[in-house]
């Protein structure tokens, strides 16, 4: 089942997909363009993987890690499907990152990799924008690069784990203004989903609603104000986002 969170007629609703439309939790059926899409999960602790695809590490001229390179993201940075993402006026290189997002379904502590999938509630699509201008040292936390407001669109759907046959064999694609610019497969992750759950739960408890952003393959392109960015994962969803400039926000 595909589940969403949306705002409609002044209230927030859970919703499911029915015949390419949305069935709200009060029974009403509405069209996709009638709602404001929210992140399908209210993020709790969000883990993001750096350099989890060897081709992406090579693309950035970094050595592939031998241990998961993980940083945290704050809830301020998440927006939903069809939202706008702000590109600062001083940015010279801001690129998208199409990523499979793994949503944890129940508390997980010291999980073995053979049991890891039983802790997954579902999967969604994330676009983990990065602003390279603010990168100081890759091995320091990516706060300024990865935690800016609106810079992590996610959604539109949370797809139940049981409905995804093999999350380690799905295709990721990104389109900029309709042109395909990034294509890869989750088969190429350095650390797969069971390895990441085993690693993180070995020293901390993962809780329901925690999210793991699993990294992105090669194919990064700078974005510009006005661009429409579509990140798409086979069987999971198609996430649309638009880049806007500082002039769309009030001056402080």
From TrEMBL:
Stretches assigned to the Fumarylacetoacetase-like C-terminal domain: 45-244
The protein's name: 2-hydroxyhepta-2,4-diene-1,7-dioate isomerase
Pfam families, per database record: FAA_hydrolase (PF01557)
One of the GO BP terms on file: 4-hydroxyphenylacetate catabolic process
Coiled coil feature spans: none
GO molecular function, one term: 5-oxopent-3-ene-1,2,5-tricarboxylate decarboxylase activity
Source lineage: Bacteria, Bacillati, Bacillota, Bacilli, Bacillales
Alphabetically ordered keywords of this record: Isomerase, Metal-binding
Metal-binding listed as a keyword: yes
Organism per entry: Aneurinibacillus migulanus
SUPFAM superfamilies, A to Z: FAH
């Amino acid at each position: 089942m595909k589940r969403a969170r949306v705002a409609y007629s002044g209230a927030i609703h859970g919703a499911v997909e029915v015949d390419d439309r949305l069935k709200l939790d009060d029974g009403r059926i509405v069209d996709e363009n009638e709602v404001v899409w929210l992140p399908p999960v209210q993020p709790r602790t969000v883990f993001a993987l750096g350099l989890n695809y060897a081709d992406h590490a090579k693309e950035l001229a970094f050595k592939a890690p031998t241990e998961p390179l993980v940083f945290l993201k704050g809830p301020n940075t998440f927006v939903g499907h069809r939202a706008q993402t702000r590109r600062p006026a001083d940015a010279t290189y801001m690129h998208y990152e199409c990523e499979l997002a793994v949503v944890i379904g129940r508390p997980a502590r010291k999980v073995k990799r053979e049991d890891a999938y039983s802790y997954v509630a579902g999967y969604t699509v994330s676009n983990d924008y990065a602003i390279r201008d603010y990168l100081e040292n890759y091995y320091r936390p990516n706060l300024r690069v990865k935690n800016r407001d609106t810079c992590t669109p996610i959604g539109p759907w949370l797809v139940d784990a049981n409905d995804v046959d093999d999350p380690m064999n799905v295709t990721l694609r990104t389109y900029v203004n309709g042109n395909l610019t990034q294509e890869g497969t989750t088969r190429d992750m350095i650390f797969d989903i069971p390895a990441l759950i085993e690693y993180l739960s070995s020293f901390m408890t993962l809780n329901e609603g925690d999210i793991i952003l699993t990294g992105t393959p090669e194919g990064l392109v700078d974005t510009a104000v006005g661009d429409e960015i579509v990140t798409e994962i086979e069987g999971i969803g198609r996430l649309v986002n638009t880049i806007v400039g500082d002039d769309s926000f009030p001056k402080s």
